[in-house]
Amino acid sequence: MNAQHLGGSAGQGAQIDLCERLKRQNETILAQNTALAMKQSEMRRLVEDLKARKAPAETPDTTALEAENARLSDALAQRAHELGVLTRKLEEARAEDPRTMAELRAELEELRGYTAGLEYTHLTVLTSTSWRLTRALRGLVRRLKGQPRPAPFAPRFLDYNG
């Protein structure tokens, strides 16, 4: 595997994150739509009940209820539009990379294994006798060139207790 391949997987990770975020937003809007639809239905039922009673002395002002119903209808329509937009975005993101999540996860595991192998090779060099014996020489050359001391290596994918 080369650096370009590793760089491509970072973009795929971002693609996976985008798909997951869009999926969560989609689910949230679906839940909100359901709640708004239920509230709208309840408001319609209340308005119809009040209109059906029509007792002149008891008839409350239904204007407020009708206004709330109209507001809920508008909010529901807005949420339906947002849901459509998010669904299209999710489908576009899926269409850009037709591979399945299982394939992407398998590739991620393969890359993690590859990275652990590279870390193992790097640690092998760092712990070798020749690397230890040339430490002073490397430090002298680094000082002559005016280079800073490199940060210590800390493996991320390899379980190393050395």
Describe this structure in words.
The protein has 162 residues and is mainly alpha-helical. The protein has two domains: 1-98, Orthogonal Bundle (Helix Hairpins), CATH 1.10.287; 101-162. It is 78% helix and 0% strand. The chain contains five helices and no strands. It has helices at 3-53, 63-96, 101-126, 129-133, 135-145. Helix 1 (3-53) runs antiparallel to helix 2. 2% of the residues are buried. Keywords: Plasmid.
Q: Short description, anyone?
A:
The chain is an all-alpha fold and 162 residues long.
Give the arrangement of secondary structure elements.
Elements: H1 3-53, H2 63-96, H3 101-126, H4 129-133, H5 135-145
Keywords: Plasmid
Distance, first to last CA: 27 Å
The name of the CATH architecture of the largest domain is Orthogonal Bundle
The CATH topology of the largest domain is what?
Answer: Helix Hairpins
Q: What are the secondary-structure elements, in order, as H or E?
A: HHHHH
Main structural class: mainly alpha
Q: What is the tally of helical segments?
A: 5
Helical residues, percent: over 70%
Mean pLDDT: 81
Uncertain stretches: 1-7
**Overall body shape:** rod-shaped
What's the structural domain tally? Answer: 2
Largest sheet: none
Q: Keywords for this structure?
A:
78% helix, disordered N terminus, 162 residues, Helix Hairpins, 2 domains, plasmid, single chain
